Amino acid sequence: GENVGLHLPTLSVQEGDNSIINCAYSNSASDYFIWYKQESGKGPQFIIDIRSNMDKRQGQRVTVLLNKTVKHLSLQIAATQPGDSAVYFCAESNTDKLIFGTGTRLQVFP
Amino acid sequence: DAMVIQNPRYQVTQFGKPVTLSCSQTLNHNVMYWYQQKSSQAPKLLFHYYDKDFNNEADTPDNFQSRRPNTSFCFLDIRSPGLGDAAMYLCATSTGGVNQPQHFGDGTRLSIL
User: Fold this and answer.
1) The pLDDT of residue A95
2) Most buried in the list A25, A55, A105, B32, measured by CB within 10 Å?
3) Could you tell me which of A82, A100, A102 has the C-alpha nearest to residue A39?
4) Which of B94, B104, B109 sits opposite A96 (nearest CB)?
5) What's the confidence (pLDDT) of residue B99?
6) Domain total for chain B?
7) Do B99 and A51 touch (CB under 8 A)?
8) Nearest C-alpha in B relative to A46
9) Are A94 and B48 in contact (CB < 8 Å)?
10) With an 8 Å Cβ cutoff, are B43 and A45 in contact?
11) One pLDDT digit (tens) per residue for chain A, 110 residues
12) If you measure CA to CA, which chain B residue comes closest to A88?
């Protein structure tokens, strides 16, 4: 059935602290993983991706960690800013389609 | 610099009245996707085009159709919208092939009266 009224997991952090958003993926055959940021009223925005031959990849203020053994993906945001407030989705793939996780809402307070 | 453009941003239609949502891209990508996203949920893939090849998801209702007249444009047609079809509709593109990021537009929010 439809998940009416589903509540997103929420992570609340203080401005300037580091944030860690976690994601468990389901398909052990997935070999490509991606993080999106979605602000209210906007489409998902690409943040960073990683392929299964890596376990860590860094971008500007963001780091993605991949643990294939336990099928776990995390997104670390350094020095979190108010502009980082959004819903974050992980997605996995081994085809031309993405399978999205349920999302985490990040709230940044002063 | 908008690369995936969805029009309109907001669409209101009446119950049962056909509606068309549009998407255009300036990326010259081979693949265009349509997703439905309801509040506090992840995007749900409806279908996608790889060039002119249409790929429907098994659980996409027959009420939803799509057209891709050329590389740049793709349309989502909802033949007889029901109240349950109220949602954000997202268009995305990718270069094609496996393990490529998808680039999303800002969506069309559809309301049903």
Assistant:
1) 86
2) B32
3) A82
4) B94
5) 85
6) 1
7) yes
8) B103
9) no
10) no
11) 333 445 789 999 999 999 999 999 989 999 999 999 999 999 999 999 999 999 999 999 999 999 999 999 999 999 999 999 999 999 999 888 999 999 999 999 99
12) B42
Report strand pairing: A10-14 vs A104-109.
parallel
Residue A95 domain-assigned (yes or no): yes
Interface touch B43/A44, C-beta < 8 Å: yes
Domain that holds residue B32: 4-112
| Number of domains within chain A | 1
Range of the domain at A84: 10-109
A2 inside domain: no
For residue A54, the one-letter residue type is M
Q: Which of A46, A100, A103 sits opposite B101 (nearest CB)?
A: A46
Residue B45's alpha-carbon distances to A52, A96, B36, B56, in angstroms, are: 23, 12, 7, 9
- Calpha distance A53→B45 (Å, rounded): 27
Q: Which of A8, A32, A34 sits opposite B40 (nearest CB)?
A: A8
For chain B positions 54-93, those within 8 Å of chain A (CB to CB) are: 84, 90, 92
Length of chain B (residues): 113
* B73-78/B87-94 β-pairing: unpaired
Q: How confident is the model over B41-91, as pLDDT tens digits? A: 999 999 999 999 999 999 999 999 999 999 999 999 999 999 999 999 999
Residue A39 within a domain: yes
Asked if A3 has any chain B CB less than 8 Å from its own CB, the reply is yes
